[in-house]
Amino acid sequence: MNHYPRVIYVILILLLISCKEKTNTKKIETKETAEEWISLFNGKNLDDWVVKIKGHPAGDNYKNTFIAEDGSLKVNYDEYNDTFNSTFGHIYYSKPFSSYKLRLQYRFTGKQLSDGQSWATANSGVMIHCEDPKKIGLDQNFPVSIEVQLLGGLGTGERPTGNLCTPGTHVVLDNDIATDHCFKSSSKTYHGDQWVKLEIEVRNDSIIKHFINDEEVMRYYKPQYGGKVDYNNEYWKSLETQPLKSGYISLQSESHPIEFKNIEILEL
């Protein structure tokens, strides 16, 4: 009796089953690894964002400091009459986050207000793990947070961006608790009004990484409360060394116009 046809039939069935399993596996892997980035800014208005400016209650967008225009979220000083008067401001996304990737593009434009601090020229930031904007002191300069500092080039010389500043916080950097206020990244300098891509990877209270134009420029560990705060300092001091696990995301106003666009988040 010739068994070859039956053997061939069995082989074909096995091949079909194998191909089907590979196809299903591929579909599962694709589904599991797909990155679902969510836009935080619709390009049209400031819905889902909360403004807090020094000297003004949360929700008061003093002199239209933050506006949505041409698809960008802009820090705008048209109504300031060239006088900043230390009205440091932040605009917060309305929901806190813990572990995520945040990406956006930014560029500095125009000129700094005449009475802005010299260090604030082409200076802004993305604040992460921020305290609740509705609980910030009326005259508080900056939220307790981790600041991803953004600096523009001044035409000559080096001025890295994607740096780290720590208002009311500390981190572990190079295996030690870092208690200075600001730390330089390894990024290049970006002069003029060119768009720069920023990405931040935040893993709860474990590790945080900064990327500029897809290049990692800084990483540090174990964000925690620590250092002096210009409002309710005794309260924050009582939290010193406790891990900073989550918080709000905010964009900064420090006296130099800046624009942000394509603000997206991927929760991890």
TrEMBL record:
Domain 3-keto-alpha-glucoside-1,2-lyase/3-keto-2-hydroxy-glucal hydratase: 36-265
Name the record gives this protein: DUF1080 domain-containing protein
Pfam families assigned: 3keto-disac_hyd
Domain of life: Bacteria
